Q: What sequence folds into this?
């Protein structure tokens, strides 16, 4: 260990009378460096390197609420990305893309794709499911933006907010230039058949 420490600290200069070189002369025989090079650092053959400890997971599985979102919705993704960035140092929100082929209703309180496409759903760590404006309220609270939806806790503001969101949820596919939910479901079904064949592992 002492030899490796000295070797690592020493820079072998072109001048042979370098005191650092003399201190290592009993341990290894350095090659003469080419002309024009001022100095050269060489590793000792056979020296071991201590392994680097793996980084700890900065975001342990301590999520408090799970956000089910439509990854194919461009406007929705703006909000999802904002929440994801705010959640970076908290890890309290788990994001689940329902448009992914890997989405599993069984792992999300039995909520299938069509149901979640109707309006936003969030699942708390205790299994409780919240929807609509209430879901946004809980999600925003987890990233320190609860004040944005605080006013929706009071009536009649709460009812107005619910009505506005329900209108958006009903027509968001048309607003974002996407096909109807029926056409999307048919396309997903066709894609599942082509991708999975008769495999029972693939689910809608």
A:
């Amino acid at each position: 260990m002492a030899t490796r420490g000295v070797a690592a600290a020493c820079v072998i200069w072109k001048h042979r009378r370098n005191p650092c070189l003399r201190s290592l002369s009993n341990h290894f025989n350095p090659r003469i460096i080419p002309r024009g090079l001022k100095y050269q650092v060489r590793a000792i053959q056979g020296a071991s390197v201590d392994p680097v400890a793996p980084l700890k997971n900065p975001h342990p599985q301590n999520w408090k609420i799970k956000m089910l979102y439509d990854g194919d919705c461009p406007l929705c993704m703006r909000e999802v990305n904002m929440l994801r960035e705010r959640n970076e140092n908290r890890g309290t929100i788990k994001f689940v893309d329902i448009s992914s082929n890997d989405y599993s209703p069984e792992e999300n309180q039995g909520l299938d794709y069509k149901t979640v496409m109707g309006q936003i759903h969030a699942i708390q760590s205790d299994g409780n499911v919240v929807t609509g404006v209430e879901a946004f309220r809980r999600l925003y609270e987890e990233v320190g933006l609860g004040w944005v939806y605080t006013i929706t806790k009071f009536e009649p503001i709460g009812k107005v907010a619910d009505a506005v969101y329900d209108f958006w949820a009903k027509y968001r596919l048309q607003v974002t230039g996407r096909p109807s939910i029926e056409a999307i479901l048919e396309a997903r079904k066709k894609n599942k058949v082509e991708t999975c064949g008769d495999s029972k592992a693939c689910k809608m």
Summary: The chain is about 40% helix and 10% strand. The chain has two domains: 2-40, 65-196.
